[in-house]
Amino acid sequence: MTFEDLHLGSIVVSTVRNAPVLIFAAMAGLFAERSGVIDIGLEGKILASAFVSAAVAFTTQNPWYGILAGMAVSIALATLQGYVAVTQKGNQLVAGIAINIAMSGLTFVVAQYFFQQGGRTPDLGTARLPYVTLPGSAAVADVPVLGWIWTQLLGGHSILVYAAFALVPLVHWLLYHTRFGLRLRACGENPHAADAAGVSVERTRYTSMLIAGMLCSFSGAYLAIVQSGFFLRDMSAGMGYLALTAMVFGNWRPFYTFLGCLMFGFFTAVQIQLEGVDLPVVGRIPGALIQMVPYVVTVIALAGLMAKSVAPKAIGVPFVKSR
Amino acid sequence: MTTNDMPRWATGIVLPLLNLLSALLVAALAIHLLGEDPVDAMRILVNSAIVNPEGLSYTLFYASTFIFTGLAVSLAMQAGLFNIGAEGQMYFGGLGLTLAMLAFDASLPWYLLIPVGMVGAALFGALWAFIPGYLQAKRGSHIVVTTIMFNFIAASLMNFVIVKYLIPPGEQNTASRVFSDAAALPPLNAWFPALGDTPLNVSFFLSILALVIYGVFVSRSAWGYKLRATGLNKHAAHYAGVKISAMIIVTMLISGALAGLGAVNSIMGSTHYLSLNFVGGAGFVGIAIALMGRQHPVGIFLSSVLFGALIQGGFDLSLEKPNIPTETFIFIQGLIILFCGAMENLYAPVLIKLIKGKKG
């Protein structure tokens, strides 16, 4: 493979296909963190919902049941996080990390128990979500540029891809233009003021965690029953942390977070494309080094070289009602 | 009445024990659901990890590594820093140690090689923790996110370095060459043959020494006082004259050095070469140990032994019970972090009532 074989078009399409895992998780994190609960447990929730949705989709041969089951388990984990953060007033970081570690072990053990394939689920085959073919695809398929845009860039994805991209303006609207969004942000910035204004900080944070759990489940479901078609041990591979960083990168705002997700999706796409390619000047870059790129970019971004991020003020602080 | 008003035996011993018990109960339930008998599993685990002398020495061998990673996380925690990067720091420490050994193991005698290896491990571990520490101190980047990123970067970078530079020509195994015999830490079974065929070595005593030094420095020295003040209230400590950013950087340097030293036991004490993924989660176990041991030297020792026993017993258990693979213990580790770290005060209200009731 040579430099000329790199196709910009396929990088763009694969960016669009890589982004949803990050978008769902990052929007989930946004709800949790904007309400004041640190959500470092995204990784564990992605993994759990990926496994459960793959397992249930395979067993029932119906991807929708898989998605529902993944949602249930992700919401359960988010509720546990909410319980630690709100009721127990415990350490939210620790709770998230505990969930990530526990799920990494448990998904393997349960997958092994049920399927005996080294912690993998069987291939989903026809139980994957179908790809959407836009009307008129056949007619424009051979037209240059337009054909590519209509069948590859806009069409030919699973419904979840469209849902992910539609989610961003929806989250923006919910956060900034509804009463619920106002209250949610108040709980993350100044819970005592919210409390004084008659908002139940506890209930708002629990609700946010429920939404976060639900959104995060799509991330795992997408990974397992759209992208790969099976569950594999630790298949989330740091996506939850990347989503979290996209959010920090995007200053806890939906559109900027979305851009962060696209950026990471792009790097993943480039990494896959660059594998084994002879580049001019630098030659062949080893895969291990390309793998590092998103993480290095993240560190540089976090070092404030791009933008100073401002976290919600009350993030990670348990709310204790003052008397 | 809050947990601060409770007697120390209650917060220091009873609560952690209740939390640990809860975690193990959930684990037992999981084992039951997997169709195995939890009591039988427990019997096998205790037998092969503690009762059997060879198993016990394996337990202590794992514990020697865990003490170092546990100390690394604990020390940072004392300053209010959540160092999740012990995994990458130990990995990098292994590289420092290996580079030192590859350079000197043919020319130096053992009494110089061992300190040189330790210095290499500590130096590289410290280096890997320095950058997140510096970024936290000077640029305000969140140490949790940066150390996580540094774990990922370390994994990729080490993969590259080992494959590209360290594999001896003609070898397929992704590992460096084996060090000369002079670079091996003396195993303890040379003096205690009853221990059997085990990698337990003198670094067990080094880890105990590290625990003692940690205990003395954190609770008895002026520096330790500043460290804890920073952890309790950064602003108050700053007002009292502690240079916070210097404190953060120095703490992360020492924390990284401790994590790096964890590689000494694993590499110089056992494998005698650097291999891909040799850390195998010891850095994450360190988080669990720091939380369960409440950053106290005795607590760190006891929880390190507990985790060593879980790993050693887990291996044997997975051989006998195919439904309980070793990954089960990653799950149990998560449970212990959840119960002992995140929900550490779960039973405090009940316990407070009990104590009050007795007095009244």
TrEMBL record, chain A:
Tell me which species this is from: Pseudoduganella armeniaca
Look up keyword RNA-binding and say if it applies: no
Identify this protein by name: Sugar ABC transporter permease
Q: Does the keyword Transmembrane helix apply?
A: yes
Query: What are its GO cellular component terms?
Result: plasma membrane
Q: Which UniProt keywords apply?
A: Cell membrane, Membrane, Transmembrane, Transmembrane helix
Concerning Pfam families, the annotation shows: BPD_transp_2 (PF02653)
GO MF terms held by the record: transmembrane transporter activity
The protein's matches in InterPro entries, at most eight in alphabetical order, are given as:
ABC_transp_permease
Q: Which membrane topology term applies here?
A: Multi-pass membrane protein
Q: Which PANTHER family match?
A: GUANOSINE ABC TRANSPORTER PERMEASE PROTEIN NUPQ, SUGAR ABC TRANSPORTER INTEGRAL MEMBRANE PROTEIN-RELATED
This protein's source sits in the domain of life called Bacteria
Subcellular localization is given as: Cell membrane
Instruction: Give the transmembrane ranges.
Output: 6-28, 40-58, 64-86, 93-115, 159-176, 206-225, 256-274, 286-307
Predominant location category: membrane
Automatic annotation (TrEMBL), chain B:
Topology with respect to the bilayer: Multi-pass membrane protein
Recorded hits in InterPro entries, A to Z, give:
ABC_transp_permease
Where is this protein localized, as stated in its record? Cell membrane
Q: Which GO terms describe its cellular component?
A: plasma membrane
What are the alphabetically sorted keywords of the record?
A: Cell membrane, Membrane, Transmembrane, Transmembrane helix
What residue intervals traverse the membrane? 12-35, 55-76, 88-104, 110-131, 143-167, 202-223, 244-267, 273-291, 298-315, 330-352
Lineage of this protein's species?
A: Bacteria, Pseudomonadati, Pseudomonadota, Betaproteobacteria, Burkholderiales
Q: What is this protein called?
A: Sugar ABC transporter permease
GO molecular function annotations of the record: transmembrane transporter activity
Look up keyword Cell membrane and say if it applies: yes
